[in-house]
């Protein structure tokens, strides 16, 4: 679903509900927290989901096939349906009931989820918005009316409706490997989506008196039963979207004869519902490289004027999809073209449906944007597997398998603003892209909105970039998330929060995860490593039900990068990035440093190196007659120090010895020439925001040249609050810029800059000597001092 990003500055928010905890390993310390492994924060790997992030050898998921007939009553604005559902239990569990979703009950005044929101008096309102509060609340006539629920033989089934969910009690236990067939007949009054909101409904066009129907969440849909949650039967509140099972659909839609229908999957009877001219154009479009109008603008305008009372039935079939949506209107212009996916040679029919009000934009761009989207997403995830991809202009922004509802209309004279054009392109790319997340990589939207919206927004950004390098993407680049990240903590929550408990839904579920993935790709992992790992995740979990840990683990498993610090900070926390240049110490060498003279150091021979205190274990071991110490039984191991430690060797430990230290040397003329232009720079950084990130620096020198350096985020691992970096250059540094390309989402760039002429500088000198010889003391070698063996005369 496409949301506009709106950041509100509100005073205080409080919420309760599930969020994933960012457990600190070493609280109170300046290290040992941000770089610790996620450990028990992630679920324990098992036979269903492995520690590598891949599905396990015991992975399973249930399935549901649907055969549905629908009757659209345009006069009454009512939808009547009948479905036969075949539910397959592939789980190892016995099921004695099943759950279905009745999403249309969210429009009901008495059967909705009941998730009230806080409300205040408005400073102004309109006559249509103001009405007296009704207590008790009256039934507004919307929501699902169940007519019949039976088994395959027509026997009534016991069921219970709880708001937006329905439980059917099975006549007998459904065991592993078994299937259950049942039937549901229902109807509901279709809501005016422009007034009541929501994803499905109708839009009325007063100028010509016609409706445009977007039929979404329109049939009772199976809930997911999974290895990680059991039944996902959390109520549909209108925000947290959907968790759905895969299956095959056959859907027959009986609509007014002059309506044009688009839907999930492929229409199986175009020859019965299209005119001969329209069918001929469709056949041409199947092999066209440019969009061809299948229903022309003139035909759509003509159809608007005649409200047929005749009926036609459109039949669609779709395989391996998690949902089915459709649209119906006599207002539609319809165009299409063929696009081939290079990765699998899949020939896809890209199509668009739109009223005349959006003709000037959609005829020019929509179908081409559909084709561009599925091709680009195929490059970054998996090859698009379906035969159709469709965009419908419906003043909306919502996604379903192979079809999505978008927005973007021209002025009456056919012109449009750049903002309208870009908004249309953005929403088409976003909603078509949802075919991949979550329609194929089928995450639980009800629990984790970011797993589909965030991943999809990220891939949308990549696709927008490949559409037009000047496209003004507002979600993805690191700098675009800064305003959200700098909000007070009481207006934030971790990305790893339940969909219903998010205050700033757009930034949290869409922008922040998309930005995080882009930072991983561009700044932390690099494009090659990231792209391989991201494709691995998509491939592993295509047509399956991934959870967050599956993504996190796969990204690490496929890249060889330890990213737990990033998941912990960006996904489980609310700290922002604010790394500051605290101070720069500039030091030059003293080339005239007086050499240090050789000196004599007095010392005494070492005493036996035994512990000053005998601990309990040593005493007990010595008293235990069953313990035989190795050296006591091996005469060859009883050397001088064996006896020395036991007082059996006599050494004068009071005698003084002397050892001479080596003198340093003065720099010669050649050395002075070599180092005369060297300047050292110690840059002290402070982590003011809390979230660790790589340190990226741009050095500008007095001659105008530039150098760049990047330290990985792990530079913070031993001190998460302060670090320093030292550089030596043969040219004078004029300025230092931290994060010059604004790629880490730093919320305060005013503390990212140092100038040699500004404040925050400490000047000093350091001594420079000439080293007499290469190398140094060998570890474990002679120190030059007399040892006890030598002092005893037994060397």
Automatic annotation (TrEMBL):
Residues 772-795 are annotated as: Disordered. The keyword Methyltransferase does not apply. Residues 372-570 form the Peptidase M1 membrane alanine aminopeptidase domain. One of its GO terms (molecular function) is metallopeptidase activity. InterPro entries: Peptidase_M1_dom, Peptidase_M4/M1_CTD_sf. Keywords: Plasmid, Signal. Residues 1-20 form the signal peptide. It comes from the Bacteria. Transmembrane segments: none annotated. It holds the Pfam family Peptidase_M1. This is M1 family metallopeptidase. It comes from Chryseobacterium panacisoli. The lineage of its organism: Bacteria, Pseudomonadati, Bacteroidota, Flavobacteriia, Flavobacteriales.
């Amino acid at each position: 679903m496409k949301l506009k990003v709106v950041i509100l500055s509100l005073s205080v928010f409080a919420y309760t509900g599930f969020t994933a905890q960012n457990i600190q390993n070493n609280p109170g310390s300046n290290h040992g927290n941000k770089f610790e492994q996620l450990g028990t924060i992630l679920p324990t790997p098992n036979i269903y989901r492995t520690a590598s992030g891949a599905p396990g050898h015991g992975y399973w998921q249930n399935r549901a096939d649907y055969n549905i007939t629908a009757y659209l009553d345009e006069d009454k604005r009512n939808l009547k349906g009948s479905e036969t559902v075949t539910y397959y239990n592939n789980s190892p569990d016995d099921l004695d009931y099943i759950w279905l979703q009745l999403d249309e009950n969210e429009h009901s005044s008495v059967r909705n989820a009941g998730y009230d929101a806080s409300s205040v008096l408005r400073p102004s309102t309109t006559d249509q918005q103001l009405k007296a509060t009704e207590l008790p609340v009256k039934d507004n006539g919307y929501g699902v009316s169940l007519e019949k629920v039976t088994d395959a033989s027509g026997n009534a089934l016991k069921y219970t409706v709880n708001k937006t969910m329905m439980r059917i009690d099975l006549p007998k236990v459904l065991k592993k490997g078994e299937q259950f067939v049942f039937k549901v007949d229902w109807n509901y009054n279709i809501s005016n989506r422009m007034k009541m909101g929501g994803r499905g409904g109708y839009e009325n066009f007063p100028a010509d008196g016609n409706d445009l129907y977007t039929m979404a969440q329109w049939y009772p849909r199976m809930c997911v039963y999974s290895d990680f949650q059991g039944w996902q039967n959390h109520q549909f509140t209108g925000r947290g979207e959907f968790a759905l099972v895969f299956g095959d659909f056959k859907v027959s839609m009986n609509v007014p004869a002059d309506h044009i229908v688009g839907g999930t999957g492929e229409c199986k009877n175009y020859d019965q519902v299209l005119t001969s001219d329209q069918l001929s154009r469709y056949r041409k479009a199947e092999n066209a490289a440019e969009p061809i109008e299948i229903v022309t603008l003139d035909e759509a305008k003509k159809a608007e004027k005649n409200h047929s009372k005749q009926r036609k039935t459109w039949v669609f079939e779709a395989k391996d999809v998690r949902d089915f949506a459709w649209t119906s209107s006599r207002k539609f212009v319809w165009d299409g073209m063929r696009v081939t996916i290079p990765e699998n040679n899949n020939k896809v029919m890209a199509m668009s449906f739109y009223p005349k009000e959006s003709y000037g934009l959609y005829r020019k761009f929509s179908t081409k944007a559909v084709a561009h989207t599925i091709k680009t997403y195929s490059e970054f995830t998996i090859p698009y597997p379906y035969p159709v991809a469709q965009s419908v202009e419906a003043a909306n922004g919502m996604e379903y398998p192979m079809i999505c509802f978008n927005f973007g209309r021209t002025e009456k004279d056919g012109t449009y603003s750049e903002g309208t054009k870009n908004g249309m392109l953005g929403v088409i790319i976003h909603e078509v892209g949802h075919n991949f997340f979550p329609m194929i990589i089928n995450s639980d939207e009800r629990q984790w909105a970011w797993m589909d919206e965030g991943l999809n927004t990220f891939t949308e950004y990549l696709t927008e970039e490949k559409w037009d390098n000047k496209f003004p993407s507002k979600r993805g680049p690191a700098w675009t998330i800064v305003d959200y990240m700098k909000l007070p903590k009481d207006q934030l929550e971790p990305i790893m929060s339940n969909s219903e408990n998010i205050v700033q839904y757009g930034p949290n579920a869409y922008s922040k995860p998309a930005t995080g993935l882009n930072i991983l790709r561009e700044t932390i992992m690099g494009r090659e490593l990231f792209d391989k790992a991201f494709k691995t995740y998509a491939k592993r979990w295509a047509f399956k039900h991934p959870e967050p840990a599956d993504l996190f683990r796969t990204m690490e498993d496929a890249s060889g990068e330890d990213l737990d610090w990033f998941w912990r900070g960006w996904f489980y926390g609310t700290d922002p990035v604010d790394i500051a240049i605290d101070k720069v110490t500039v030091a030059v060498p003293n080339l005239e440093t007086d050499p240090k003279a050789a000196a004599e150091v007095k010392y005494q021979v070492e005493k036996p190196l035994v512990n000053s205190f005998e601990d309990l274990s040593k005493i007990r071991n010595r008293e235990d007659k069953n313990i035989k110490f190795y050296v006591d039984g091996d005469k060859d191991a009883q050397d001088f120090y064996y006896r020395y430690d036991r007082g059996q060797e006599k050494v004068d430990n009071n005698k003084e010895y002397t050892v001479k230290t080596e003198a340093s040397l003065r720099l010669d003329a050649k050395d002075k020439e070599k180092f005369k232009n060297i300047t050292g720079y110690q840059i002290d950084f402070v982590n003011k925001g809390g979230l660790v990130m790589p340190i990226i620096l741009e050095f500008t020198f007095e001659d105008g040249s530039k150098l760049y350096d990047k330290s990985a985020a792990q530079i913070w691992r031993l001190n998460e609050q302060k670090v320093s970096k030292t550089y030596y250059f043969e040219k004078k540094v004029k300025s230092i810029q931290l994060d010059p390309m604004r790629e880490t989402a730093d919320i305060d760039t005013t503390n990212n800059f140092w100038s040699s002429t500004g404040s925050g500088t400490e000047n000093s000198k350091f001594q420079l000597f000439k080293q007499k010889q290469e190398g140094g003391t060998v570890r474990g070698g002679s120190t030059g001092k007399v040892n006890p063996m030598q002092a005893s005369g037994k060397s």
